[in-house]
Amino acid sequence: MRRVLLLILIGISLCFAIEIKPVKGLLYFGADTLVALRTVDSAQDRCYLAVNPHTLHTSLVSSKLCSFVNCSSDSIAEVFASLPYQRLIADADINPDSLQDAGLTHLPVSGHGVILTIDMCPSHRPPDMWFFDSLLSIDRRQRPVPVAISLSGLWMEEHRPELMRLIEMQKNGLLDITWINHTDRHPYDKTKCFSSNFMLEPGDNMRQEVFGLERRMILAGLVPTVFFRFPGLVSDHRIFTGVESLGLVPVGSNAWLAKGQKISDGAIVLVHANGNEPTGLKDFLALLRSRREEIASGTWMLYGLTESAAAAVR
Ligand SMILES: [Zn+2]
User: Fold this and answer.
1) pTM for the full predicted model
2) How far is the CA of 121 from the centre of ligand 1 (A)?
């Protein structure tokens, strides 16, 4: 369904300039009532980026195929209070003041296994594409393999062939990728402390970072999701609530492998495949090898971020 929608809706000529703005309202599209998050305007058409409040799947819908009704955030929250999208936002909101790891850090899963998130922060180094090949070679049973990839705009710009290869792996049914917004420029200054670094650097650039990445994703043929990861996992109350006000769900981690954090069932595992942190990748593959028999028998597996998040709050 998502792929069909994508093919139909990307028919809008997105090779031209697009403008993205936040919007609050409901979108009636066929039998579905979606929560509209953005308007996406090109010279040819207006599209809406919208989320299905039951499944958390997002779509780009042409304004010619749907009807839009303005609605306040409070009204949307009231109407959809019992549905996964609204409940997930409430769940992620439990630690908005935390300087690191605010948002979701783990999710309950139905069996044994974890949710794998792979960050692509800006880097001049060659991406670790071997890691994805290794994932597929160790787990030959689960297809597609669910992974969440956090994209930054500067990484997309510098590593286009690798981005296209990941998209191909998704199209070919090898990977089921949940794309996470990891900001456009991914601000970072190694000389500064956390409290004035990453998204907390002086100057209010939060919207530019969010929309800049969404714009790049749409132009690359991807549909932005509701998931957002703070660079460095660093945020404060103002940035956290600002990101949430754009309809996004912050995703942290309780298992950043290169920092020695341990894995438990339902952990949101964090590794980097941007060439900067091979230790975490090797540790994760060693874990998979140690569980080879459980993986082969289907008693230990990787879980998708979107599906796990939707199921966790049902
Ligand atoms: Zn990062």
Assistant:
1) 0.92
2) 4
